Amino acid sequence: MFSNKLSNEEPILKSIFKLSEISLTQINDQSKLKKIILEQHKKYLAVILDLQICSNDDLSFWKQLLDLSPLPILIFSADSSKIYHDIQQQKATIHLAKPITDFCRYIHNEKEEKQRPVDVLEYIQLTKEVFFNITGHCIGKDSRCTPLSSTEFKLLFLLVRNRGKIFSSHELLDQLDLPGLATLYVHIQNIRSKIEKNPHDPQILINHRGRGYLVKIEDIE
After folding, report:
1. pLDDT value at position 1?
2. Would you say residue 194 has pLDDT above 90?
3. CATH architecture of 123-215
C-alpha cells in the first residue's frame, strides 16, 4: 500500500486487512514502490494507493503505475471524514455494475460448460418401453423414434440430468429463456404426448402442485 500522507496512526486499511489475515506492506516512497512493482510483483496481490490528498502529481504517478504494473491497482482514501462516503460510493458502483458482472459470469460459465467433457449416455431408459435418445434428439417408443424440438430437448434434458430435483415454472422459464408460462406449458404437454403412456395421467414428467416439475425414471432391472 502506498500512502501520500505520513502518519503515526495505523492506517485504516491495515486494520481491515489484519482481520482478513492478509499482510499489508506500507510504502511512502514512490521510487521504492516502482522498484517493487517491477522486480518483486510476484510476491503481491495488488497495489493500493491511499491518496488522502489527491494532487495532480498523484494522478500522474497513478497513470505511470498503470503502464508499469502487472498487478491490479486500487485507489482508496483513508481520510476518516470520507470513509462513509467512499463506502456508499463503492456500494453504488457494485450495484450499478451487477448486470455487467452477471453477464461476464454467464459468458464464463458457458465457456466452462463447452470445455467440460460430456458425461452422458447416448440414451437414457425412462421406462421399460420408453427411452430418451440424447444423441438423436428423439424419444424411442413403440418401435418408433419421435423427434423433439430444440426447446423440448433442452427441457427434458435439464430435468433428466437433474433427476429427482423439482424445478419451479419460473426456474424453467429462466433456464430455457422462454417468453412466458403459456409457452412452457405447451412444451410440457408436447413432451408428455411423446413420452407418456397416458399424457393425461403422467408418470414420467410429473408436476408437484405448488412446487414444480421433475422427471421420475422407472427402476429397470
Report:
1. 46
2. yes
3. Orthogonal Bundle (1.10)
| Other C-beta atoms lying within 10 Å of the C-beta of residue 138 | 19
Could you give phi then psi for residue 209, rounded to 5 degrees? -55, 130
Cell of 155: 427441457
Mean pLDDT for 198-215 is 93
Supply the mean pLDDT for the chain.
75
Domain boundaries, the chain: 2-83, 123-215
